[in-house]
Amino acid sequence: MSLRPSDRLGTVVEVTTPIQVEFVAEEGVTPEVGDYVAVVHEGGSWILGMITHVERGSRELSGRSLLSASEADRIIELVGEPRQWARAKVKLLGRVEEGPSGVSLVLPRTPPPSGAGVYRAPAQSLRAVFSPDCPGVPIGSLLTRREVRVLLDPNEMISRHLAVLAVTGAGKSNAVAVIVEKLLELNGVVLLFDLHSEYSGMTLSPGARGEVVTLDPKINVNSLSLSEFSYLLGISYEKAARQYIYLRRLWRAAWDLRGKDLLDSVVREAGVEDPEPGNILDGMIAIAQIAKDAIESGEEASSAVPIAGGVSLVVDKDAKNSLYGLISRLTHLKESKRQLLSATAPEIISTLENGRVVVVDMGPLGEDAADVLVGHTLTTLLARAKEVISARRSGEQPPEDAPPLPVMVVLEEAHILIPNDRDTYTRYAASRVAREGRKFGVGLTLVSQRPKRLDPDVLSQMVNKIILKVVEPEDQAYVRRATEFLSEDLVRYLPSLNVGEAVIVGPMVRLPAIVKVDLFGGGRGGESLRATEEWARAASSSRSQPSRGGYDELVG
Amino acid sequence: MEARTHIERALYSDLEAPVVRASWKPLESTLSPTESLERAGSVAGIDGGSALEEANLGQKVFAVSSAAAVFKAGFRPEELRVYQVGVIDFFKAEDRVRIYREALEARMASYVAVTGLADLILLDGSIEANLIAEPVFKAVLPGRYASLDEEEREAILREFEKVMGGIPLHSILRVVAASPAVQKEVEEAAYRIVGEADEGECRKSLLAVSALERLEQGVSIMALISAAKASGVTLVSVAKRSSAKSHFRSVRPDIALVQRFTRGPGYTKPVVQDVHVSNYILRAASRLLGNELKGGVTLTTLYARLAEGAAPLRIELLGALNESEIKDLLETLSGMSVWGYPYPLRRAHELAKIGRADLEAGLRAIGFLPEMTGREALGE
Fold first, then answer.
1. Which residue(s) pair with B60 in the sheet?
2. Most buried by CB count within 10 Å: which residue of A68, A533, B214, B348?
3. How large is the C-alpha radius of gyration of chain A?
């Protein structure tokens, strides 16, 4: 592709390396950070590069001794408009080569020569790189070249995970909504954990293909594993072995009773408050209560307390204290997680479908309940995905209720549930998905405004990143450390990005790109309240009501 | 303790305060930069720059420059630059290169005066210092080697005229620098003056070369003065630093006293003096310019602070100016000053600046590869 003389930006000056050059700009040209340039190399070829830093100055207003505006104004009065100069750094990305498998970039082995011409990269070449002719997720346009659309590779996005990082109000949720909608158009499957009800009333853009399903945050209590129960109850084998052993016995006994259709009658008999039919948690409370009563009344003649239908609970002589403790913890769990745990709730995973985004509105939940919900769902999803893939590999039919794969799981406010300074269930589950999800078709997208609070191991596995405005220096440094594609120069510009402008790096784009993200055409339903409008509305409604006014109103 | 007292007295005593304050007059200038340019017509700031780089064992490459920034109200400044590059021996290289630079600055100012580019020419430094300079090698090891006698000076003048024959005035150093053949000619001229060089006479040949260089610089400044007088240009030199003590006749430099004992914009009572110029320079300049130059050069000298809080400057004006002319000129300079320094000079300084890196890059650009300097063994 030939370079046009009118696109010339400047001339390379010393010293050059195979990965970076600097150039001085032509008179009247001001290079833009993030723009793509073509640096002429030997043999008439050129190398694609990105401008990562620009300095500008004037010949007349230079010098450290210039200390006040009035001095500068006097100089301008004497010389007229100052003559500008500009100098830019370019990170070299490679020579664009088109082969049978598409466009590839090959880094040169030798630096470009000093004195080489620098041109605006041809739009056609940029399109070949950023808008390849294959299914993709159009996220926006290059910030400096609006005519070049940027497509994200959904395969890489899901298999190498994604982090969307920015301060509040920089456009994270919009970017997520754009991606989700485009994935649905590709018949993709998305599960979105919405911690602050930002997507609770989400609607897609007019004419967009796909479906939005919003779920209340519920876990089917009967789908919880023993280890999940132990986590919820705060009981570990290492710290409270006896209680853990009794918990296991209760859990097994409850399932035995449920298998024999005796669970509900036992729950009734034990007088468990607010019982729910078939609820394993109720059953465990009931069994523990019955066993405790038997021990207290001295009925147990043997080491097994009979419950019902031949199901018994093995106890020893010190069982009473353990059972007391367990009843207390199980009852507290039931009461505190009443909103979350239900024996009739559909399994979240069972609602996943191609072309659908399932939004789990976790706004009403506290952080610990949200932790259980997300951790449980991720763990279950990964386990089910493993079953599906394993069945596929062995040529067997996957289970009928198998989740559709691949699936992208989006977690908003990820720093709350995957913190760097304490263990959470979600952190454990997310780290497993981050490590293993690639093989089993489970992709993770973490959205956060405080990257430095995120678990570094998990974040480092989010190989793709969409980074919008990041102001806090520690967050910037953290993002830099966790992102191999992000140069120091680009990090410096993160605070100056405008709303909706993002640096995108990772294998889902062939090259790092600074992008103006499209505006989501649908509604998210959870946008921030506009204070002035709300107050004005309140004022107009209060005016319509009679009021005594003044001090009387305050004192009643 | 005695030494400390002595230093404190030299630096901080107030002995001269009454004399300096009595000499000081406040300067009230309300001219804007545009008004001051309109009053002055066109103003040129002239400055020079130089750089030296080790090139070889015992030799250095030098570059000198001179720049003119010409300002006229309502127009973009015109900027002129000229460079010389050459090779010089290590010994006294800095001083000799300074002589080259001063000569080039004088020639740039002459060009501006002759071509009518400016009505007011501002030189960086001191006209007086340029006029009274002596050859660099005059004081080399005094007493051990003979200095040039009068006969030898005459011989230098004759050789200078020979070398200059057919070459325009503003060019001997440039030609010397550019052409090995002419450089050889100059060196041979030096040998002709001092005879066949033996051990002791070798130093004399350096003296002869140095005298030729000084002659070039002296003739250049005389040519400038002649051109300024002929074209009616006002010639002013402005020095930021000075060790002159002739104004207040103290042990401390005049400029230090003004800095210490005066406040605000103002200026000292001007002193008019005739500066003596060496005969051999006068004669060479007379012959080359075709005018009979006699006697000294009249300069009006004063110290001025052009803005509140700024450092004082030593200002020399060509000719004997009256009080009103001086006041007008200082008001004009103040109006076009930034932080108390005339901006045309500042701009010329920026234009003329040659960094060592510039020189290195320039040499590389023309394919010059430095040879061994002898300091590689030290890892440098």
1. B54, B88
2. B348
3. 31
Using DSSP's 3-state secondary structure scheme, residue A389 falls into: helix
* Tokens found for residue B284: 């060479």
The residues, any chain, with a CB within 8 Å of residue B209's CB and separated by 6 or more, are B137, B186, B187, B190
B350/A65 touch (CB, cutoff 8 Å), yes or no: no
Contact A121/A467 with Cβ under 8 angstroms?
no
Arch. (CATH architecture) of B17-133+222-366: 2-Layer Sandwich (3.30)
Polymer length in residues for chain A: 556
* Residue environment code for B300-328, b if the CB has 16+ CB neighbours within 10 A, otherwise e: bbbbbbbbeebebbbbbbbeebeeeebbe
Residues B246-282: tens digit of each pLDDT: 899 888 899 999 999 999 999 999 999 999 988 878 8
- In chain B, count H helices and then E strands: 14, 12
> Given an 8 Å threshold on Cβ–Cβ distance, is A14 in contact with B361?
yes
Least confident of A309-323, A437-451, B116-130: A309-323
- What is the rounded CA–CA span in Å between residue B23 and residue B16? 11
Q: Does residue B292 sit in helix, strand or coil?
A: coil
Q: Which residues of B touch A59 (CB under 8 A)?
A: 350
DSSP codes joined into one string, A187-249? T-EEEEEETTSSSTT-BPPTT---EEEEE---EEGGG--HHHHHHHHT--TTT-HHHHHHHHH
Q: Which amino acid is at A256?
A: D
pTM (2 d.p.): 0.68
Chain A residues whose C-beta is within 8 A of a chain B C-beta are 14, 59-60, 62-63, 65-67, 71, 74-75, 77-80
Indicate the domain borders of chain B: 17-133+222-366
State the angle between helix axes of B180-194 and B201-231 in degrees (0 to 180), rounded to the nearest 10: 110
Angle between helices B33-40 and A69-79 (to 10 degrees): 40
ipTM attached to this prediction: 0.72
Taking residue B261's Cβ as centre, other Cβ atoms within 10 Å add up to 17
C-alpha A174/C-alpha A540 separation (Å) is 32
Residue type, A349: I
pLDDT in tens, B195-226: 655 555 556 667 777 777 888 888 889 989 99
A171 and A447 Cβ atoms separated by less than 8 Å: no
Number of H helices, E strands in chain A: 17, 22
Give CA–CA dist B96/B186, Å, rounded: 15
- Give the gap in angstroms from C-alpha B100 to the nearest C-alpha of chain A: 27
Compute the nearest-CA separation of B243 from chain A (Å). Answer: 24
Both tokens assigned to A538:
């309140």
Half-sphere exposure of B91 (CA within 13 A, CB side): 9
Report the alpha-carbon distance of residue A24 to residue A9 in Å, rounded: 8
Check if the beta carbon of residue B301 is closer than 8 Å to that of residue B315: yes
User: Using an 8 Å Cβ cutoff, are A444 and A435 in contact?
Assistant: no
